[in-house]
Design brief:
about 200 residues; alpha+beta; D-amino Acid Aminotransferase, Chain A, domain 1; D-amino Acid Aminotransferase, Chain A, domain 2; 2 domains; 4-stranded antiparallel β-sheet; about 15% helix; about 30% strand; globular
Length: about 200
């Protein structure tokens, strides 16, 4: 039975961006467990010791909750990315099994992470969605590996825009910004396109 994850930012006792996480979880249930009612993320109880500060709430589930963990979150510095191609990778749902992503991460060489290219198009890094800056606007790949919850909100808020971005288009951009559920867009690492190789 496949297992899935939701990683939710818990800030000062509140689970952030919850409607977007619930929407993604609901899609998993519709596709894999239509006979079960989706887990209600709003019912998650936050222990007292995690009421102050920023923590990652990590939910592992199938048709029921398998585990729920809270842990401090520290953003790791990312200053360079290595382009790695994989044309068969599938991560449309946030699977608990990250074997392929971990294997790709091992190919980063001297870079801090990899930027995955699928069929010639940019997708994501191993842990974050991306947006590229062309001098006036931030563009995010139309076909990411995983349609992240923060990405969905950024699109709804029109902070980023969808675009078809090929590997060879990188030279047309100034930089790449990384973001995910735990990393706010305005705080995400910015990598010069000169440091993507």
């Amino acid at each position: 039975m496949k297992q899935f994850l939701e990683s939710i930012c818990c800030k000062d006792g509140a689970l952030l961006n919850l409607p977007y996480h619930q929407r993604r979880l609901n899609k998993v249930f519709q596709y894999f467990h239509p006979e079960h009612l989706p887990i209600s993320l709003a019912s998650i109880s936050i222990p007292e010791e995690y009421q102050k500060g920023i923590y990652k709430c990590r939910l592992r589930y199938s048709y029921r909750i398998l585990s729920l963990e809270f842990s401090p979150y520290i953003m790791r510095p990312i200053n360079s990315l290595k382009l790695v191609e994989h044309n068969k990778i599938e991560y449309a749902h946030k699977y608990a099994d990250r074997t392929t992503l971990n294997e790709l991460f091992e190919k980063k060489s001297i870079a801090d992470d990899v930027l995955i290219v699928k069929n010639g198009f940019l997708t994501d890094t191993t842990y974050a969605n991306i947006a590229l800056f062309d001098g006036t606007k931030w563009l995010t790949p139309v076909s990411p590996l995983l349609a992240g919850t923060r990405r969905a909100k950024l699109l709804d808020d029109r902070i980023i825009q969808l675009a078809t971005i090929k590997k060879n288009d990188i030279k047309n951009f100034q930089c790449v910004r990384l973001f995910n559920a735990m990393i706010p867009f305005e705080e995400g690492p910015i990598i010069s396109t000169k440091n993507i190789f």
